[in-house]
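Protein in question quoted for reference:
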Amino acid sequence: MNESALKEIMDDPNYVVLKRLPETLEKRESSADPAFSAIVIDLETMGLDATKDAIIEFGLLKFSFTNADGIIEVSETYNALNDPGIPIPELVTKITGITDADVKGQKIDWDYIATQVESCNLVICHNSGFDRNFLELQTPDYIQALFKKTPFACTLRDIDWSERGFESGKLDYLNWKLGYFYDGHRALTDCWAAFNLLIEEDGAFEELKNSVKKSEILLCAVSAPFEKKDLLKERKYRWSDGAGNLPKCWWITVPGDHLAEETAFLEETIYCRPGAAKKLPQSKITAHTRYSFRAEMID
């Protein structure tokens, strides 16, 4: 297609022209500010249960940035398949295109992963609530330890896409609205897709970094009167039956600076007595635990 024909299509309101997602970034000039590094990680897995489903593909994109200049360059990329030792479910192959033949005899270089994580300041995933638990439960012990002490951010949750006018937080949709298409559900390609959001959406990376700094409090309303359950549900409390990591209770996660407001609500509306919320079980959540199963535990 010649340039004139392409321009005609681009100017026609009946068509939308998309560009293929770039998988390179030209190095940008930076000032003398200290440089930090972040790693974008994406996984393909055997299923949704991080306690038992194996990782079958690992993608990694490492980039550097400064507070003054933003993202500077992509320094490392890595993609590896991993043989789970059992047949891949048909549905997983249908979604990812990864077959038993593709993964046969393949393995992830965990020593390389360790080197990259040890030298980074932040791990980023699109839907970190999924990937982080697999990284903390389905990897060698020394890798789990590294991810448990590294701050995590999420391009799905730590950027308010709705406020920015997007109707969905799905990775392919966001890139499509930004003018890009790609072949999804392969690990490294999805890393580039998440990274592209930080490059193309104005202010998104700054918003994500600010979200990393926030702290939250997990608060357990133990022994709340049964007849107050509807009030708790309306306020977005969730029920724990005590079989997991939390006691039997209604619980909620609130911003750290909203704790006083929340305890006041519990004392005035739920327990109906002053001081009733002072000794309720609670735990602080930061980027070191956020999106991990460990965030839903009482210290």
Observations:
- Residues 7 and 17 are 10 Å apart (CA to CA).
- The chain has a mean pLDDT of 95.
- The chain is about 30% helix and 20% strand.
- The first strand starts at residue 19 and ends at 20.
